[in-house]
Write a structure and sequence with these properties.
The complex is a heterodimer of chains A (about 160) and B (about 575). With about 160 residues, chain A is an alpha+beta fold. Chain A contains four helices and eight strands, in the order βαββαββαββαβ. Chain A folds into two domains: about 80 residues, 2-Layer Sandwich (Alpha-Beta Plaits); about 70 residues, Alpha-Beta Plaits. In chain A, the strands form two sheets. A four-stranded antiparallel β-sheet of chain A has the order 2-3-1-4, with helices on one face. In chain A, strands 6-7-5-8 form a four-stranded antiparallel β-sheet. In chain A, a hairpin with a 3-residue loop joins strand 6 and strand 7. The chains are: A alpha+beta (about 160), B alpha/beta (about 575).
Chain lengths: ~160, ~575
């Protein structure tokens, strides 16, 4: 089971390592993790993607909630939520035909070319993780020079909000 | 009104305002400003240990016996790392400790400075929470938070790391009266709907079983538990950590459960139809093979920590809350239902249990030419009227003390159950004796465990702690030897303690009394003599049967109904 868990964390030194340490100490899986301060500088928002059986996911949420620095937690997979990931990808592109194709594919996927050299493009792309995966596949390993992904970010749909 | 004080003064004042009685510690460079302030006051009694591990265990023993948090002060680097074993010991048993570690000055942090270690990083996985204090003005509020976190909810150790410059800088001092943490709000009241559901199950059980752990002791809920047991007439078992929560001499008490639990307790667990688990955490030493655990039971689980519930065993009625509160509510419901306690003479379930009890699983050879360790524990029980504080180390002697002492009161049995820390017993006994100078404090140990922290004999002399040390000396790491006998074809790999010291001379060298007891007939007299020396620490070196094993035993990974019984015990059809 893949789960996206979003939490509010006290923005203090070492609070991120408590979350990361919990996952390694208890041998939980962690697929992606992203963290940044919110509009309230004392609070960080952290989104993580994990996998495990129902029992393991239950333990993960309970153990996270138990961390003294965790203010609030929500399992986004339980309700209706929007999940997005951001990616920067450096693509080998030399020769007219190849350059046209990369530009065209980027356009189809709603990406933007943000850097150009004679032999490469950097494309930025936002979407659900599967869309990013699909774009990487269509570009192909041979043409990919470098990939940077943000990890998943998520937010609940509707008026309900996760606040400190 | 606030006043301007140096960090070190703020530290000491905060502890005084927090009501700290004893500070177990060891000085060093990073905490010298603090030690200088300690020198100027006599409200807090500083107990100088001989090794930082001893400080944490002593504070831990104090906390277990009194219910108050144990407080420790050590220096940076090795001071902090030496304390880690004691911190982890407290963590696994949910004991409230506040451990202050000195740290190098803030501008040196990360520079590999002298005696620098990342104490926050090292202790993170074995504390409830930890804090690095970066400014003198944060010191008092952080200390307040540390005590609050350590003692509320599921208790545990909290580390506060204090850089040296923070203790030199000046700030306003006010010790906060209240503490409010938006991210930490433990829930102590159980859900009324869940409590009702539990009561329904309890009142309709045919083969009920009450299984309680350390949580009952931590929440000071023995009275509510005893009432609960008596209202129902159900059989009660305690975990190793829970001994004393329900009086061992009560006929409803059927012994400890688990790996070295009684035959009747484990069989009753296996066959029960409603299991009422209270403040216990379904540890692997209790459950054995999870697939075979309580196959016929609906399970109710009361615990203050939501993450303890359904961690190892899926339960039917989870109740998150303080066990004292929840037991109080349950007792009300049982009284309202006018439930008549089940009759121990006539109820079919009790008849079954009595049948299991007939096996007499704690029987041992009383005619042996060697001193039997079990007999020593029983003699200690007689001589102390079953009313001593008993600390232990880890191994066979620990299990024998748990099986044969029979604790009637909570907080009397003090041992490292979760982490299983050898070396715990003597320093823990120091903390207990300091808290209760007029009570009998016994440290049951073995020669292998004892030597791990024996340097604290020196501390005992300094503070006149008349602990009675009962060392069951079989010249082996007994529990290791037992496993090697059972599971490694008697290949006793490195479990024999060659060239042991002369413990009598050792005790004398530290300024105490030493005794060696070699014959079964001398046990009682030696104990009497030792306990008559009210103001002296006596180290009793009992030369015991080398081959004695702890029975019953459930091998790791086996089911609760698959017990090794002592040779000669009439083995009957199991389950």
């Amino acid at each position: 089971m893949r789960r996206t868990i979003s939490l509010l964390l006290e923005n203090t030194a070492g609070s991120l390592s408590r979350v990361a340490g919990l996952f390694s100490a208890r041998a939980y899986n962690i697929e992606s993790l992203s963290v940044a301060p919110t509009e309230d500088p004392t609070v960080s928002r952290l989104t993580l993607v994990t996998r495990g059986s129902e029992e393991v996911i239950e333990q993960i949420t309970k153990q996270l909630n138990k961390l003294v620095d965790v203010i609030r937690l929500i399992d986004l997979s339980e309700g209706s939520a929007i999940e997005r990931e951001f990616m920067l990808i450096k693509i080998r592109a030399s020769g007219g035909e190849q350059r046209d194709e990369v530009a065209r594919l980027a356009g189809i996927y709603g990406g933007r070319i943000v850097d150009v050299t004679e032999s490469s493009y950097i494309v930025e792309l936002t979407g659900e993780s599967v869309k990013l995966d699909a774009f990487l596949e269509i570009i192909g390993a041979r043409r990919i020079m470098e990939v940077v992904r943000s990890g998943v970010l998520g937010i609940l749909r509707g008026t309900k909000a996760l606040r400190a | 009104m606030s006043e301007k004080l140096r960090g070190a003064e703020i530290f000491v004042r905060s502890l005084i305002d927090e009501g700290v009685e004893f500070l177990f510690g060891y000085p060093g460079g990073a905490v010298l400003h603090i030690y200088d302030e300690l020198y100027k006051q006599d409200t807090i009694k500083h107990i100088l240990v001989r090794h930082e591990q001893g400080a944490t265990h002593a504070a831990d023993g104090y906390a277990r016996a009194t219910g108050k948090p144990g407080v420790v002060l050590v220096t940076s680097g090795p001071g902090a790392t030496n304390a880690v074993t004691g911190i982890a010991t407290a963590y696994l048993d949910s004991i409230p400790l506040v451990v202050f570690t000195g740290q190098v000055a803030t501008h040196l942090i990360g520079n590999d400075a002298f005696q620098e270690v990342d104490s926050i990083g090292i202790t993170r996985p074995c504390v409830k929470h930890n804090f690095l204090v970066e400014r003198a003005e944060d010191l008092a509020p952080t200390i307040k938070k540390a005590f609050y976190v350590a003692t509320t909810g599921r208790p545990g150790p909290v580390v506060v790391d204090i850089p040296k410059d923070v203790t030199a800088n000046v700030a306003d001092y006010v010790y906060p009266e209240h503490v409010e943490m938006r991210s930490y709000k433990p829930n102590t009241k159980g859900h009324p709907g869940q409590i009702k559901k539990a009561a329904q199950l309890i009142l309709n059980a045919q083969k009920p079983m009450i299984y309680t752990g350390g949580g009952v002791i931590l929440d000071n809920a023995s009275e509510q538990l005893t009432r609960f047991g008596r209202l129902l007439g159900f059989p009660v078992t305690n975990t190793l950590m829970g001994l004393g929560a329900y009086p061992a001499s009560d006929p409803q008490f059927i012994g400890m459960l688990g790996m070295h639990g009684t035959y009747e307790a484990n069989m009753a667990m296996h066959h029960c139809d409603v299991l009422i688990a209270i403040g216990a955490r379904f540890d692997d030493r209790v459950t054995g093979d999870l697939a075979k655990f309580c196959p016929y039971a609906k399970i109710i689980h009361v615990d203050i920590d939501p993450s303890s519930i359904s961690k190892n065993v899926k339960v039917d009625v989870p109740i998150v809350g303080g066990v004292g509160n929840v037991l109080g509510e349950l007792n009300k419901l049982i009284e309202e239902a006018r439930f008549k306690p089940i009759d121990r003479e006539t109820h079919a379930w009790w008849q079954q249990i009595r049948d299991w009890q007939k096996l007499d699983c704690l029987r041992y050879d009383r005619k042996s030419e060697f001193i039997k360790p079990q007999a020593v524990i029983q003699a200690v029980h007689r001589i102390t009227n079953g009313d001593a504080y008993v600390t232990s180390d880890v191994g066979q002697h620990q299990m024998w003390a748990a099986q044969y002492y029979g604790f009637d009161k909570p907080r009397r049995w003090i041992n490292s159950g979760g982490l299983g820390t050898m070396g715990f017993g003597l320093p823990a006994a120091m903390g207990v004796q300091l808290a209760f100078p007029n009570e009998k404090v016994v440290c049951v140990t073995g020669e292998a465990s004892f030597v791990m922290c024996m340097q604290e004999l020196s501390t005992c002399l300094q503070y006149d702690l008349p602990i009675k040390i009962v060392s069951l000396n079989n010249r082996y790491m007994g529990m290791v030897r037992q496993w090697q006998e059972f599971f490694y074809d008697r290949r006793y790999s490195h479990s024999y303690m060659d060239s042991l010291p002369d413990f009598v001379k050792l005790a004398e060298a530290f300024g105490h009394v030493g005794m060696r007891i070699e014959k079964p007939g001398d046990v009682e007299g030696a104990l009497q003599e030792a306990f008559a020396m009210k103001n002296r620490l006596v180290l009793m070196d009992f030369i015991t049967d080398q081959c004695e094993n702890v029975y019953p035993m459930i091998a790791a990974g086996k089911g609760q109904n698959e017990m090794h019984l002592a040779p000669g015990t009439s083995e009957r059809e199991l389950a």
